[in-house]
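In the design runs reported in the main text, the only information available to the sequence generator was the tokenized backbone. The following block is the verbatim input for one such run; it is reproduced so that readers can re-run the procedure and compare outputs position by position.
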């Protein structure tokens, strides 16, 4: 759709530049093309050429405009506006957009890369809390965006099975019983109790140190205990993720890279850089020449490896098994992420693309798994679902309990996911469920309701015996109709940019704009009350919008409800 229009514009511009004797490299957006409020696509290439040619941008733009051929297909006209070249879509292009959207085959790109996205990867010592939710939602949304763009994506969970937290869970299970609550919550209680016990009994720390050493050495008894506890905890974490419509394709355990010898190999390669040293028995990498004051400890004095050492081996594996690898990390990982990428450069290994996110918070206080003062994702989802149930019941009091609960669950999941992802990852955000569940404002329920409204229009039209595909597209000439067609066309552009730039909030913004555009069309271009020929055309546009809304919601991991 839009990318086809953009491709034609790029071809026209390169041909015109060649005629003028100017050259701009193909590839990254060197033509300065972007969506504009003054045109369907505008080029600022004249600004880029001005310093090289020592001419005014206005004069350069005029030369390019005069050199443009009139061999248009998807372009209707090109207007000169000072230093800008403004391109407008042809009716033929809009007709193509409508037909592709109706055929429902316009929603997958051709990026064709193998991508590994690692997200969530929470320590299996308790339930996910509100902070984890942003990691999981950003990660899963990027997985969906990349797949929609045409990539083959492996969503991975990296299991921390060799850290102190896991050792404390194992020690805790030797002293306390699981209470039968949800698995991850039960494990958290044992973990918290073990840490409290350690405050009065220093032997607990010694027991944990022993678990770490014996597990890394492959002690069968300890391996069985650790893996059993972790699998139990992850089972509970998965329940929460599934509730948010999030699933991982594969799980990789830290220990597999120790057992296979990858960690030892990485240590050997780093030693050859000449930047390693021993300090009080600990093996360290000196990265001061690369801007890091703190040295990077790779191996403890007792010979056991650290998380970052194993992470280096994991990232080498990811680089060997993908075209791109993406890490979703909280802002508190900036330092260690920078160290890791620097060490990978020293090893000659492709670095991951890292999405750093600031934290999401609630009006209530801080979260700490160790102290037992955290707000779990389950508690948040329960509360939002409860509020969503009341909203749905007020709107649909005639419906049965099963309907109300099902819709409330889908609305709640959508509200959480959308409210989290609508904000750029690098900005902190506070989750407010009242705003997130506002059906009248720019929220997930608003977008879901737009899809449900489109479905309702189509059901009523079909009851009248209308054939939504028997259309005269040239009747769709109203401002709101054309605006909606153009917004539908932008789907592939938004997906392509979000996939390349790893910015999922761009799709959330598009979803809101698409829903707004559909609602303007619905409000000012009556569908069912129009005369028969126009009704058929508007029915087709409603169907195209429904398909676009469904594809957009699905890519955001939100269920496109047909009735609300």
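Verbatim output:
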């Amino acid at each position: 759709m839009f990318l086809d229009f953009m491709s034609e514009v790029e071809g026209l511009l390169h041909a015109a530049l060649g005629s003028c004797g100017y050259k701009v490299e193909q590839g990254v957006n060197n033509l300065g093309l972007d969506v504009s409020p003054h045109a369907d696509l505008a080029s600022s290439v004249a600004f880029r050429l001005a310093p090289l040619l020592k001419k005014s941008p206005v004069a350069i733009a005029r030369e390019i405009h005069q050199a443009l051929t009139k061999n248009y297909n998807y372009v209707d006209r090109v207007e000169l506006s000072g230093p800008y070249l403004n391109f407008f879509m042809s009716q033929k292009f809009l007709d193509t957009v409508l037909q592709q959207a109706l055929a429902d085959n316009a929603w997958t790109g051709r990026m064709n890369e193998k991508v590994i996205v690692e997200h969530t990867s929470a320590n299996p010592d308790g339930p996910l809390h509100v902070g984890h939710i942003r990691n999981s939602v950003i990660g899963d949304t990027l997985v969906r965006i990349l797949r929609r763009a045409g990539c083959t994506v492996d969503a991975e969970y990296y299991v921390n099975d060799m850290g102190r937290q896991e050792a404390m869970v194992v020690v805790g299970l030797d002293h306390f019983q699981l209470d039968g609550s949800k698995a991850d919550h039960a494990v958290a209680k044992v973990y918290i109790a073990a840490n409290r016990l350690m405050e009065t009994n220093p032997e607990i720390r010694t027991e944990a140190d022993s678990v770490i050493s014996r597990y890394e050495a492959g002690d069968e008894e300890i391996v069985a205990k650790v893996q059993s506890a972790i699998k139990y905890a992850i089972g509970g974490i998965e329940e929460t993720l599934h509730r948010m419509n999030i699933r991982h394709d594969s799980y990789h355990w830290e220990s597999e890279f120790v057992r296979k010898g990858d960690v030892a190999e990485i240590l050997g390669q780093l030693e050859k850089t000449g930047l390693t040293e021993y300090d009080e028995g600990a093996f360290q990498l000196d990265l001061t020449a690369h801007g890091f004051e703190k040295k990077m400890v790779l191996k403890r004095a007792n010979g056991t490896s650290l998380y970052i050492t194993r992470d280096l081996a994991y990232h080498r594996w990811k680089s060997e098994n993908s075209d791109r690898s993406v890490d979703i990390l909280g802002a508190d990982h900036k330092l260690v992420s920078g160290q890791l990428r620097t060490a990978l450069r020293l090893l000659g290994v492709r670095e991951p693309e890292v999405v750093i996110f600031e934290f999401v918070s609630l009006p209530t206080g801080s979260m700490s798994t160790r102290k037992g003062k955290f707000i779990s994702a389950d508690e948040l989802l329960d509360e939002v679902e409860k509020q969503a149930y009341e909203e749905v019941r007020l709107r649909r009091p005639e419906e049965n309990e099963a309907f109300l609960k099902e819709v409330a669950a889908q609305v709640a999941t959508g509200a959480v996911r959308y409210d989290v992802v609508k904000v750029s990852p690098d900005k902190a955000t506070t989750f407010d469920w009242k705003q997130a569940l506002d059906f009248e404002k720019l929220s997930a329920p608003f977008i879901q309701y737009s899809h449900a409204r489109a479905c309702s229009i189509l059901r009523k039209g079909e009851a009248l015996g209308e054939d939504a595909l028997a259309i005269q597209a040239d009747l769709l000439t109203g401002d709101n109709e054309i605006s909606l067609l153009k917004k539908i066309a932008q789907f592939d552009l938004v997906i392509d940019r979000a996939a390349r730039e790893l910015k999922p909030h761009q799709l959330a913004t598009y979803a809101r704009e698409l829903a707004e555009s559909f609602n303007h069309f619905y409000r000012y271009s009556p569908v069912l009350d129009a005369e028969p020929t126009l009704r058929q055309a508007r029915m087709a546009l409603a169907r195209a919008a429904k398909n676009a809304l469904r594809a957009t919601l699905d890519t955001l991991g939100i269920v496109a409800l047909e009735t609300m």
